Amino acid sequence: MKKLLHILIINCSLLITHCYSQWIQQTVPVSKPITGIKFIDSLKGWACTSYGTPADTAYILYTSNGGTNWLVQLAAYNINFTDINILNSQTGYVSGADNNIGLYKLFSTSNGGISWTSVTMVPNMNIADMQFLNKDSAWECGNSIGPDVRTTTDGGNTWIVKTSGIAQATQKIFFLDYNTGFCGANFNLYKTTNAGLNWVLNNNFSQSIESMYFKDENTGWLGLSPDVSAKVAYTTNGGINWNLQSLQPYLFNITDIYFTNNQTGWGGVAFNKIYKTTNAGLNRGYQNNTQGSNRISFIDTSRGWSGWNGISYTTNGGGPITYVGINNISSEVPNTFKLYQNYPNPFNPETNIKYQITTSSYVKLSIYDILGREIETLVNENQKAGTYLVDWNSEGYSSGMYFYKLIADGYSETKKMLMIK
């Protein structure tokens, strides 16, 4: 009997640990889509909502106990909150569209949300994204017909247009400090190093920029909206070069990106999943998240919150990652390292690449174009001995000859393949 009781205690303990290693739903007092979420420590956090369907009231929510209880700080009729910026325990900003007067408003607090005051923005100011650097200085960009980038140095009371060099409608903005920032304008990325006096085209892409996050001036990620499949662009040299990283499986485009260090990060989607990577995005899998992850906020690699159809939290990084595209089809230890010919070949647009490794080792499998440039990394991780099958979707690339190369434990082999559209 004692032995049975001991087993039950162990199993219950494992079950509790397993449960709380996932994304756990929190109770929210309103049923509205979460459009912004920000935690400043393990206890204090804020969230804002849209006014939902049918349009009526949007809310600013607050928790002082990690989300165990969420309280309504502000209920605003017919105002659609779009973004939240919380600087510290006292100072925060929330932007929203006032449908009563057809203008955007900025709501601010200087007492932790005990009271929120609003300022009506200038006419024709259509806020798509906003970032406050301190209580006075901020940047915004608008999704109007043409470029709309503005800055304030007085807490949002006055705004100055800073669009020199940008030719397209703008939708995302990210500043490292007041002088250095990036702006997504349709399919183009612009950069400024002089507080918006001049914007220089950094790169253009085949998909529009929906989200962005930079750890520093050199290291950053962009979430690109889907045409057939969504991708993430990654740079380690300030945007001089960008590598495209595929999302497997494709769910929706990434609406929010957050990295806790240069390797570990999450990508939010308006879906019941959340992407995660532990190697800077070279491999991305997903975690289940029943509330969706349209907006995310982390305070370290273990503790984070996400929101869309509600709010969820995790205490150890969201638990296991499910990878799609890399399948271990045999755990039997092979006699030799081997890279097989892809199948089918020729192909359009998908093909499978099979390989086998004889020992546990660090494995890299990359795709190269005819000029020898590495265009995608399919595998970049430690793997156990066995046989693996990897999918590659070449959507977005032109017809022609490509090469794939396997490197593992001193072994290296390259083969060629033909993609015909």
Task: Give structural notes.
By secondary structure, the chain is mainly β. It is 4% helix and 47% strand. It contains 1 helix and 36 strands. Strands 1-28-27-26 form a 4-stranded antiparallel beta sheet, with no helix packed on it. The chain starts with a helix and ends with a strand. The relative contact order is 0.09.
Helices and strands, with pairings:
Blueprint: H1 2-19, E1 24-26, E2 34-39, E3 45-49, E4 57-63, E5 71-77, E6 79-86, E7 92-98, E8 103-109, E9 117-120, E10 127-132, E11 138-142, E12 149-152, E13 160-161, E14 172-175, E15 181-185, E16 188-192, E17 200-204, E18 209-214, E19 220-224, E20 231-235, E21 243-246, E22 256-259, E23 265-268, E24 273-277, E25 285-288, E26 295-298, E27 304-307, E28 311-314, E29 326-330, E30 338-339, E31 350-357, E32 361-368, E33 374-383, E34 386-393, E35 400-408, E36 411-419
Antiparallel strand pairs: 1-28, 2-3, 3-4, 4-5, 6-7, 7-8, 8-9, 10-11, 11-12, 12-13, 14-15, 15-16, 16-17, 18-19, 19-20, 20-21, 22-23, 23-24, 24-25, 26-27, 27-28, 29-34, 30-31, 31-34, 32-33, 32-35, 35-36
What's the pLDDT, averaged over the residues? 88
Helix amount, in percent? under 10%
Q: Which class do the helix and strand fractions yield?
A: mainly beta
Strand content: over 45%
> How many H/I helices?
1
Report the principal-axis shape.
globular
Biggest β-sheet, characterized?
Answer: 4 strands, antiparallel
Could you provide a short overview of the structure?
The protein is mainly beta. The strands form nine sheets. The protein has a four-stranded antiparallel β-sheet, with no helix packed on it. The protein is globular and about 70 Å long.
